[in-house]
């Protein structure tokens, strides 16, 4: 963007987590693909990477399940968040996917993108407040495993969505809640996102939005409202 808000003048920076700070988006994609490869009947179209980016990426887990089922003309009862992973309900499928994801994280650990680590270190040195806004209910687990948990003053995640009755992305409620908790104005705050739904949430909330292209594509991020699209978070240090 030609009128980029310099980092040193930002009131705060709010990050999505998976695919922005940590290389866990691929783990989510793997878990979703395994789930729907096993669950979808053979007469409907198989789950693809395009489905992941269009229907699942950045959204609360149960919203992703509903979107994929709807795209195939399928419906399941919602059930409750306590449903066992074997249950044929929206929450059951979501819990099944979550089990796959946490198993991989605990077994293989979490990789932090080098450029993301550099940016977080630079912002900490500038004493600019940082927050994480993630639809995942595993945000604290991922941040703790990655050694980043103590860097963020605010975490608004999938657990907060359920607890506080917040609408998920692309609604701006999660980002607005994080800004409110930090006491900062959206217009002076930078949102960093890799998902179309997250970029749209930041734009609708009045934030300055940086899109990180990890596979979604620059055109899709710009169309969703990104002020700038980069390939790596270290690009914001130049």
UniProtKB/TrEMBL annotation:
PANTHER family: 6-PHOSPHOGLUCONATE PHOSPHATASE, HEXITOL PHOSPHATASE B. This is Beta-phosphoglucomutase. It catalyses: beta-D-glucose 1-phosphate = beta-D-glucose 6-phosphate. One of its GO terms (molecular function) is hydrolase activity. Pfam families: Hydrolase (PF00702). Its EC number is 5.4.2.6. Belongs to the HAD-like hydrolase superfamily. CbbY/CbbZ/Gph/YieH family. Its cofactor is Mg(2+). Keywords: Carbohydrate metabolism, Hydrolase, Isomerase, Magnesium, Metal-binding, Phosphoprotein. The keyword Metal-binding applies. It comes from Nocardia caishijiensis.
């Amino acid at each position: 963007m030609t009128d980029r808000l310099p980092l040193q003048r930002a009131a705060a920076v709010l990050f999505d987590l998976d695919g922005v700070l940590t290389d866990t988006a691929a783990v989510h994609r793997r878990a979703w693909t395994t789930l729907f490869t096993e669950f979808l009947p053979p007469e409907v179209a198989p789950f693809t990477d395009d489905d992941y980016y269009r229907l699942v990426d950045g959204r609360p887990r149960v919203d992703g399940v509903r979107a994929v089922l709807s795209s195939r003309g399928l419906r399941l009862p919602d059930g409750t968040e306590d449903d066992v992973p074997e249950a044929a309900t929206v929450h059951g499928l979501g819990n099944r996917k979550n089990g796959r994801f946490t198993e991989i994280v605990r077994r293989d650990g979490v990789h932090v993108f080098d450029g993301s680590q550099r940016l977080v270190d630079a912002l900490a040195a500038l004493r600019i407040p940082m927050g994480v806004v993630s639809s995942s209910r595993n945000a604290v687990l991922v941040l703790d495993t990655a050694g980043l948990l103590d860097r963020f003053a605010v975490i608004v995640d999938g657990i907060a969505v359920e607890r506080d009755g917040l609408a998920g992305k692309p609604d701006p409620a999660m980002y607005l809640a994080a800004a409110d908790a930090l006491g900062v104005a959206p217009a002076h705050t930078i949102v960093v996102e890799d998902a179309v739904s997250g970029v749209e949430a930041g734009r609708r909330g009045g934030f300055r939005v940086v899109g990180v292209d990890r596979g979604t594509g620059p055109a899709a991020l710009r169309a969703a409202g990104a002020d700038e699209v980069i390939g790596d978070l270290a690009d914001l240090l130049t």
